[in-house]
Write a structure and sequence with these properties.
The chain is α/β, with parallel strands linked by helices. The chain has helices at residues 20-29, 55-69, 105-117, 152-155, 170-187, 197-201, 223-239, 273-283, 287-290, 295-298, 325-328, 333-349, 376-379, 382-400, 402-405, and strands at residues 35-39, 73-76, 80-81, 94-98, 121-126, 156-157, 162-163, 191-194, 244-247, 269-271, 309-313, 353-357, 414-421, 426-431, 441-446, 452-459, 464-470, 486-488, 499-505, 509-515.
Amino acid sequence: PLPGTASVVGSAAGHAWHDQAWMQARAANAAGAISIYELHAGSWRRNADGEVLDWDTLADALIPYIKQLGFTHIELLPVSEHPFGGSWGYQPLGLYAPTARHGDPEGFARFVDRCHQHGLGVIVDWVGAHFPSDAHGMQRFDGTGLYEHEDPRQGLHPDWDTLIYNYGRSEVSGFLIGSALEWIDRFHIDGLRVDAVASMLYRDYSREDGQWIPNAHGGRENLEAIDFLRALNSAISSTYPGVVVIAEESTAWPGVTAPAAEGGLGFSHKWNMGWMHDTLSYLQRDPIHRSHHHSEMTFSAMYAFSEDFVLPLSHDEVVHGKGSLLGKMPGDRWQQLANLRAYYGFMWAHPGSKLLFMGGEFAQATEWNHDAELDWALAAQPEHAGVARLVADLNRLLRDIPALRHGNRSEHGFEWSVGDDHANSVLAFIRHDVHGEGGALLAVSNFTPVERHGYRVGVPRGGRWREVFNSDSQFYGGSDVGNRGHVDAMPIAMHGHAQSIELTLPPLSTLYLQVSE
């Protein structure tokens, strides 16, 4: 037990798996909807004594909860063994070992197995960018810089005071790739989210002039890290089809999700950090000022198809004094909740897979505290339970409406209807099913607390458009303003279309409408 640092050698006996159906279908299902619930295993729930749950108890509570919310995957903050709990696992020492905080490796295998048997994928955060300098770890393992660089200009990370792997050493590269494959092979993990990729790619990351060493060509790119990432992703994709590898990469590095053989890095997905920062910046503004910052909601469409993106509202946005997602929203509590519901509606319609950190599904009011469980008493309150119902319905629509999940990498799957209505802070776009399996979907967001009547929007075809989602529904805690279930298109040309529909837009809301086939 902590703070003990002695190593423990676990049993070599393998788990008797019962997830054969899941594993056989995983590759075929890889192109389906991805909606990820990100959680910290130590603070999602705790027992009556305030202690962390073991893997079996966590599975008992978590699996039915996630099934009810309709997420397709859970993503665990790093569960590799780590000495300091306050790092949330992002400073790991035991890259091959599930943390003993929740039980033994067999317990973790049972957890993954049970998730698979209930149709849930499991992604783990994996940290190959740096490691802590604890004396009982890998620092100067044989008295020299074995895993890290000798020169601190290459081997010391200034942000986290941690050590950087020497990716140019084949032994180090092999050690890291072996760790990634161990999680996938031994524990049947369905994906890795690779932390801090930007810090791996640039030798001058968070460094001033004179604090870094250029590469062999005099540039700032870390050529050895690039080769390592390509080798890592190639090893995973060639051996384990259907396993996703997601890059947390915050720069404009080209080709993060392009195949390694074509000069890309070979990841399957990339977090869209630009979308996250822009939209949160917009939503935090008082609605009276949003008209002057309209591009923060539209700019992401300019590059949305350059990579296979995940839209993240992650743990990073609800820590270190940033408050909760709900707390970022302006206005009184009703307006805060309405803003958040409208935001989620916009997010689920926007091209890209989805990720939401725990607590966001019921609009937790306080910042995440890794030493305590979520505010489950608040989650039970009607207006917060309404937000959870909204998230569950959005996940259901993501699964049921092909236009929402197909075309994340195709500009043919997205079309603006209203992208320039700065004055009213209204946005409207159409999602097309590029596979031809279903009708188009229109998403309309009104980011002011003003109810708008007679708002006309161009649509790609005539007929009856059904209102299949309304974030202002009373069912979610809204004011129940809407369009009585449907509107009929009229031959009035608008927004480049021969047909248009006339809508009532609820205050601080997002609507989805789909034409009846």
